[in-house]
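Could you show me some protein's one-letter sequence and the numbers that encode its backbone in two labelled lines?

___
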Amino acid sequence: MRTRFSSAELPVLLLTARARVEDIEAGFQSGANDYVTKPVDTMELRSRVKALTTLRKSVSDKMRMEAAWLQAQIQPHFLFNTLNSVASLSEFDTPRMRKLLEAFSHFLRTSFAYRNVEKVVPLEYELELVRSYLYIEKERFGERLRVAWELDEAQDLMIPPLSLQPLVENAVRHGLMRRKSGGEIRICVKLDGQFAEISIVDNGVGMDEETRQRIIAQTNVPSGGIGLPNTHRRLKQIYGKGLRITSEPDRGTTISFIIPVNQ
């Protein structure tokens, strides 16, 4: 259990007749949060259960709020570059300028939307945020950024909010745009029976094994990061499995996760 959930994500309360110090210590070392000895007082049991379930809910809420906060921390360079693109287009292509402003407006509204603190949202909600982001970046980078979509029909699919756009942004910023020639990003949704696999594939600079392991192992988002550790932890908490990252230097990166179709 502790390989899947932390003590805060899934509290364990021991109900035991063993009250020796060594028994209690063994329980805590095994991952328990608290214990109650038999015979059990009903009020004490209820109080301890309530305390632990309140802790669990607080941790879950904190993780979702952290995701929303991370998304709200839009990098200043992204704002400035987008506004510069708008200013540039205003001088020679007003229709394109209007479309860019529409995409930028949708991106900002969705980034600050209250529903980002919900447990899950419709897949299409996340895809619309990704489309707005990629439209903006396409206007900036032109032919350096190529986008491909491979989407199976998944109308009822629900995913954690802000779990897809950070992966796309990571691929663009840290994968493709570090190549002078840019590259291609593919957003894939593949249905397979009762599960759906969602993948972000790029042919950018890739990463070595040490970097890959460090990204997954991070418990705090580094300065300038865009929340991959948070996404990994939320997926693992909800579904039992987090992000899968495969990558090779100079050959690109694939980041994917699997979720049930009927939740």
Remarks:
- The beta strands are 13-16, 34-37, 121-122, 145-151, 158-159, 183-192, 195-202, 244-248, 252-260.
- The chain has a mean pLDDT of 83.
- The first strand starts at residue 13 and ends at 16.
- Helices lie at 21-29, 42-72, 76-90, 94-111, 123-141, 165-176, 209-217, 228-239.
